[in-house]
Amino acid sequence: MTTSTPPLREAARAIVLDAEDRVLLLRYDENGGFWATPGGSLEDGEDHATATLRELREELGIDEKAVELGAQLAERSKDHLVGGREVRQVEKYFLTRVSAADVDPARASQPDNIREHRWWTLAELRATAETVYPHGLADLLTDVLAHGAPVRPVVLTG
């Protein structure tokens, strides 16, 4: 029996922090409900940095001039369904800083299935029983806030 590898879907995701080092997460109802960082798949000819800025504009109405795009912090690979088709999604996570006042979902052009957005403190993120993607986000943020961006992106699982 042979198993084929699902088609590759490259994605860019933003770990968005404000001046108080709170992280911005989006809530979705699918799969029992979960919170996740903003982001999505790359468009043809697009690099990860450009996709990150585009996704922030589309999902949260953030003007790219208001975004301080930082280093790639992490990468995650996961097989899952997109539009009823299995893909192998490879996500690159970038440190992004914005002012909370620059988030304006009313300007979002593609809010997808986002139910709400919320700023989380590190303590709230550690204490929640809700599902948050990527797994390990609290540990990653703890290290980044204490020591800065890693020399090489951290590989996240789950």
UniProtKB/TrEMBL annotation:
Keyword DNA damage applies: no
InterPro entries: Nudix_hydrolase, NUDIX_hydrolase-like_dom_sf, NUDIX_hydrolase_dom
UniProt source species: Streptomyces phaeochromogenes
PROSITE patterns: NUDIX
Protein name (record): NUDIX domain-containing protein
Superkingdom to which the source organism belongs: Bacteria
Cofactor: Mg(2+)
PANTHER family tied to this protein: GDP-MANNOSE MANNOSYL HYDROLASE
Nudix hydrolase domain location: 7-143
